[in-house]
Fold these 4 entries.
Entry 1:
Amino acid sequence: MTLTRTRLTIGIAAALLVLVTALVAPPSIGGAADHLDSPLVAQDGSTDINDVYVFESPGAADSTVLIMTVNPAAGVMSDTTFNRDARYEFLVDTDGDAVQDTTYEITFKKTENGTQELKLKTKGDKPRLSARGQTGEIINVDGGGTLTAGLYDDPFFFDLAGFQNELAFTGDDFFAGLNVSAIVLEVPNSALGTSGDAIGVWARIEVGGTQIDRMGRPAINTVLIPTGTKNAFNAGIPSNDQSAFRDEVVASVTALSGDAAYAEALADVLLPDVNTFTIGNSEGFLNGRQLADDVIDAELNVLTNGAFTAGDGVNANDKAFSNVFPYLASAHPTN
């Protein structure tokens, strides 16, 4: 179901109330993947990571796609541009210690004539990839790969209102008709490792040297971390997740599943908060995350230890994804 601009304008106050409720309520499978997941990121959509995707390129088995979305409800409750004072980073761990070995850093300049100049540079021990261009352009990357950044349809799909109504799902996609700002980077597998290697991928945003947000898998902070600790989680690093946040995750999963032993075991899977991905593997979630993966249905099932199997009734995005770069659906009108 697609939200018309009229409905979106009339309903935005109610939508904000639902999202804010998800932030201040006790741990629950509410909110969104990572939209508005902490009080700090709610202040500036351009530093709020909504979702992170990692998957094998549909058109080139020797390439991997990394996507980060920001600006929830871009053009309505967030801006449509990127923060020129921020560093947007994809981080890649190649040896299993949850510490980045390679970082792809994207920065932006101020908006001029409706676009922003952007730059990509690589930090770490893997082959250097670099690029310069403008938002809205498809940019060839020196060293191999492709880059773009701009306004797109929000690829996340979920019956948020149904969840907040005690799981009375109606199949109404709250995120239909909404946009986000996205960074899409496709890199050669050789820049990450070799086929069959297991890597970890996450994203973070820093402003003035301070980490504002980070995300690996969907809904870890939104669902499992208590409200008073959400800012601290976003400021943390994956290698510290087990020591710093394990107790919170175990408590939340125990509350959802009713099984403390199950929660202890699942905490070892959910933390550290990184997307685990096998290079050259075309499977989806939990092998990275593909755009079409119905992650909420999967997580509802896992976090309740199989007690919830019905799903939310939203099984696909409101607009079809593409099999060609940049894979995201085009943006909805923002006027």
Entry 2:
Amino acid sequence: MQRLIYILFLILAMTQLYGQSLSDLNYSYKTLDTTEVKILNFRFESMSFFHDTEYMGDIVDGYTWTGAWVRPKLSYTFSDKLKLDVGGHFLRYHSRNDFTIVRPWFSAEYQMFDQMKVVFGNLNENGNHGLVKQLWEPERMMTDAPREGVQFLYDSKYFNIQNWMSWEQFILPGDPYQEHFTFGLSGRGQLYSNSVTSLKIPFQLLVYHQGGEIDSSPLGVVTHYNYATGLETSFKVGDQFLKNIDLNMHWVGYQCPDGPAPYGYDNGHGYSVTIAGDTRFGKFSLDYWNAYQFIAPYGKRIYMSISDRDINLSQTDRSQIAFNYMMKQPILKDIGFAFQGEALYDFLTTKFSFAFGYYLIINQDFLLKKF
């Protein structure tokens, strides 16, 4: 505990830092740029990370992610309507002799009209798909293969919406395993905005389906539903020590109409209240979470009601508070170093947990040829 406090003190002593959330580090996907038409680039994306969790209690065991992923690819913009990326994604954890994930990368982005674009292949996962961490774990950028499928993104003055379907397990006729895919919908509608204040309503839906009609698996169909809404407010304070204050309230739910398997609950809900401040020393936030029988297959596990190692170790009611800190230090253009720290207290078990991480993010483009 004393060592953690000392580390945080050293970080706070640094200057010229700006804050982000952990999900905001995941902005490597580069969208179509109309200034790069007929240009072939070599793009190098990578994240090196050391992320440690010291979780107490039965819900989540402590764990560490330490390693790096790299994503080299060729990027060519055919016109102001079409861009193509081809390359690979390679994830390796430190001290392992092999790569944990080796995947080809293929992503085609088509600008259908001014406010709508569609992505085929590897999806744009920037900003955690716009989902709250209770529904989508930000750490997936250090553990999962890039998502593949089809995605529609709409952005206007009053709405931003994205809809996608991604396949985690594709099947052919007679395959002995089930099809797994995810349907996602997330967005925000703007209620009010001026130079100081903005007020938005988020809406989010995740459907995780395990089934299929052409496989030979004896397993039954199971579909999980997660959804969220709430109110998000932001206040611009100034340009000195404190820059912005955010107050967000989210209500989330869970349904499994096919039965309680495999998690033990067939429905649940929860809510969070978060106050955050963007300062010259980084971003601070205080988050209260309360839940009942809440499950999210892709969500941050510390917020769930069942143990990640044994569903019999459940905690039907959850009540906890978390303090978070995030900073990012720019090194060069498109290269940055980040630090994240988190302290959690569970009111029902009276247990204290914490987590912290260091990250080096590189997103660089190198001009190969202009046609």
Entry 3:
Amino acid sequence: MKIAFFTNNYKPFVGGVPIAVENMAVTLRGFGHRVIIFAPQYDPEVPPEEDVCRISALTNFNESSFVLPLPITLEAQSYFADEEPDVVHVHHPFLLGSTGLGLGRAMNLPVIFTYHTQYERYAHYLPFNEMMVGEVAQQVGWKFANCCDAVIAPSSDIREMLLERGVTTEIRVIPTGVELARFKNVEKGFLRQRFGIGADETILLFVSRLAHEKNVGFLIESFAAMASKIPDSKLVLVGEGDAEEDLKKQAAEVGLNERIVFAGRLDGPDVVSAYVDADLFVFASTSETQGMVVLESMAAGCPVVAVDAPGVRDVVVEGETGFLLEEGDVEGFATRMVEILTDSDLHTKFREGALTKARTLSLARTSRRVESLYKHVLLHRRPRRDEFFLMLKEVFRYQWNKITEGIDEIIP
């Protein structure tokens, strides 16, 4: 098969979606398929890559690390048409995702949509009213899904959410898999050597963007609550983001700036080495569709303590691979961290459970399920409606509703 991916985020941007898109593309190519990726151009100096079509974009949109892809060029449209793909797979419901849907419909191709992101949780990145952006994002998400031939939900929680919002298109739960080979024969010691962490010190690890929606402040609170019980422990935060300075201030305020390591961005083998060095992985985000970094840590045999939230609870099995705590339960989170780190038998049990769970979600297995879905939609495609200017329509609908609500208040 020849498959066209459309994504608003791709390397060199670091995040769950770019990693998922690249890993799936590489694996599908390994199965003998050709995958062409339409993605934003981040930097003119980024070297060209085979089967990656870069689209001009506005960088550092709204002073963030995100980019805003511009309308696709005629040259890119011609490239798409000339390649004659069999299937279109879009990874967002707007911008290049909408472009992919439109081009797919123009050539009468089946379109698959992966719902990677709870977009309403990222409304603060846009220079508009957050309430409006959140509502519009929800409406666009499920309406766009109903324009496609099938939807991939990375977790059962996201599937239930989409059904509740009105998605009638077939939804399949297919997690983003983890490439197990990356975690084999990795030597320990990278984090200790790079950041001067002693051989006898315990490492608690977090990997993700240092953004407000990732709830990293909660992890610092929880670490502060348990720090005296395990005095030789350090919390290592891997990532960059707009919340970094606030988090550094918080670390200083709780008197732990010497024990909280801001490791910055780590790429490729360095991230894997960080997972391997960790004694415990901690995660508190409630905005995930799937805890990809959680699964990666488990592939390295690392037990997990996380906030019980959508996406994550499909990966972490309570009492088998780690513990899940309610959002805001600082003392409970701290207690569970101490419990795992002071009970060697429990740590070993969770380590083995994490490795077993990761094997069930290998990239090869999950990509085969995606491949099967492609074949299914090619055989059983049903007519789907087109939806032009969906984002604009929803913005106007929101504004009209607000106007009519205001009139109702004035004129009962």
Entry 4:
Amino acid sequence: MTTPLENREIRIWRRPEALGLVWAFRAGAAFLIALPIAGAVGATGISRFPGGDARLFESGAMWLVETVRIGRQSIGSAAQTGAFAWLVFAVAALVPLAALLIAMSQRDRLGWGQWFGRAMAHLPAFVLLSGLCLVAQAFVLGLFFLLSTGIGAAFSESLDDRNLWFFRATVGVLCGVLAAVFGIAHDLTRAARVRHDETLRRALAIALGTLRRKFLLSLLSWIAPVASSIAVVVAAAAIVSWLRVEQPGALRWVGALLVHQIAIFSLVVFRASWLAAALRLVGPGATTQSSDAA
């Protein structure tokens, strides 16, 4: 029997090994997913030309189209392998995610066997939640295309280009907020499931009750890590571009590798900061109020 933490005690650095586990899994999964495609592209001989595979990203996409034409069979097969690997790793990634939530919400130190066992116990519920969230967000995406193209086309004769663009941008923002709300509710349900060891139905009720009462706080707690993650990705891309890894020099390659790993670890930290906030949001008070409402 483990002892849950109070809200003020939930910190992302309480269990640095949990952060390291998530980072190691993401880095390893990214390498294994990209390896078949990188090998197939390299087999076309593009790396023997001056500039190497940087030519694939030149304007006009002539080199990219020609590379795909030459290696269409091997690249297509590698893409299928990569897609299957991504699906497998997407499910497997829920185990270290559950372990991170457990580590941030429990006072007691668990052995690796206990840690893994408890994380695996949450896997079926997490998989079901992820599937439901994907379906809901796909519905929102379909709604966006329906409104922006179908209804937009119906009003295209009565609206000028500026107002039509404004209409589509407004629809995009509203659908984006709705998709974000589904994602926030998804993570709050995960947090409630782990923190209170409730059934999936009760955890969902706690999450929706929390979102209803603390909508603005939940949204702001989610936005800050997301904005920070976007900034990290943009900065990493700019630094790697500045390093010009297509030019000779092992230091350039090593520098790009370090930048990528620092970026991945930063994304893990920002993700953990939101999950810690989610654990605090669905704290003991959320359970009591959810029971009273029921």
